Amino acid sequence: LGNSSVLTCPPKSNITMVTWKISPKVGGPCTLGYRADQNKTGRTNCSDSMNWKCRPDRDPTLEIRQVGIAHEGDYTCEVVATEGNFHKTYHLTVLVPPRLTLYCDDHGNPMCMAAAGKPAAQISWVLESNSTPNEEGHDNGTVTVLSKFTAHHTNVTNTTCFVSHPAGNQSKSIAC
What we know:
Elements: E1 5-7, E2 15-24, E3 30-35, E4 40-44, E5 50-52, E6 62-64, E7 73-81, E8 84-92, E9 99-104, E10 110-117, E11 122-125, E12 134-137, E13 143-148, E14 158-164, E15 170-175
Antiparallel strand pairs: 1-6, 2-3, 2-7, 3-4, 5-6, 7-8, 9-10, 10-13, 11-14, 12-13, 14-15
C-alpha cells in the first residue's frame, strides 16, 4: 500500500504492438496501448497513477504509483512482435499493514488491536492466554482484529502482544 509497483512484459525485439489490459476488482477495466508503426500510445479509462515506466518502444513495463486497494486485480500484457504474440498475466494483491494498539480495558485486562489490516492479522501473547480474537471486516476490504489477554495466573503484571502480518510483524508490551 502506498508504494510503486512495476510489472514487466516479455522482452522482445521488433515490437509491433503492446497492450496492457487491466481488470481491477473494483471499477471498470482499463487499457494502455502502444503501436510502433505510428509511434503512438493510447489509454482508455486508466487512472493517472498507471503509466509506462519509460518509453514503450524501448521497454513496455507498466508502473503503478501510490498503489491502493483499488488497484487490486488482473494485469495482462500482450506483446505483438515479429517472433509472434506473447502475453503475461499478473494478479496484484495489495497488503495493508495493521495499526497496532495495546491498552488496558476497564477491568485491567490487556487488549491488543490490529486495526484495518489486509489480510487480517494474527494476534498472539507472550504468555499463554485463553484469548479468542474478534474480527471486524470493513467495506474497503481491511479487517480489524481485537484480542483480550486472559491470564491463567492472576499475578501477571506485564505482557506482550505480537501481531503477525505478511506486511511485517509488530509487538508491544503493557502493564495493567
